[in-house]
Write a structure and sequence with these properties.
7-stranded mixed sheet, 7 strands, 39% helix, alpha/beta, Leucine Aminopeptidase, subunit E, domain 1
């Protein structure tokens, strides 16, 4: 599914984010930047030791923030590591932190002059964020950013598994973005 936002394109697709050829892929990292399971582990395995070496030099990234490293052996030149919130029911600023994780990743891409990036569904795996709410936050944040920042030409949400893709597609329709 693809929508045009001014000069930019916003796409959602089911796939493997480690195979993306965008300028950067976004990693749903942990605050210690130590690698882990899910998309984080997959990116570190596919990208090789150069990514972990760069993460060790940075050391830490708080929830809602983003840092950038080499893409190592990935097709993408860079990895933007962002830390989403652990979902504990919604009463601890989780929505604000999730929005910030997407926004800070987009701002970092603009600052670096990147034209394209690919996101996973941040915080929806081990961190337990409800997919429909996370999709709405991800899509509205990205839509608003692209309207004001045409420097980014393409944003792709590369979602692992049809159930997550279906939820993002439904949220996109609800936002009248189809």
């Amino acid at each position: 599914m693809e929508v045009q936002i001014g000069e930019s394109k916003l796409m959602i697709l089911e796939g493997d984010i480690t195979q993306e050829t965008t300028d950067a892929i976004v990693n749903a990292a942990n605050s210690g930047l130590k690698g882990g399971g899910g998309v984080d582990g997959a990116i570190h395995r596919a990208g090789g030791p150069a990514i972990m070496e760069a993460c060790r030099k940075i050391g830490y990234c708080p929830a809602g923030q983003a840092v950038i490293t080499t893409g190592g052996n990935l097709k993408a030149k860079y990895v933007i590591h962002t830390v989403g919130p652990v979902y504990t029911g919604g009463g601890r600023n989780e929505s604000k932190l999730l929005k910030s994780a997407y926004l800070e990743s987009l701002k970092l891409a603009s600052k670096k002059g990147l034209k394209s990036l690919s996101f996973p569904a941040i915080s929806t795996g081990a961190y337990g964020y409800p997919v429909s709410e996370a999709a709405r936050i991800a899509l509205t944040t990205t839509l608003d950013y692209l309207k004001a920042h045409p420097d980014i030409e393409s944003v792709r949400f590369v979602l692992f598994g049809k159930p997550t893709y279906d939820v993002f597609a439904e949220e996109m329709k609800k936002l009248n973005m189809q």
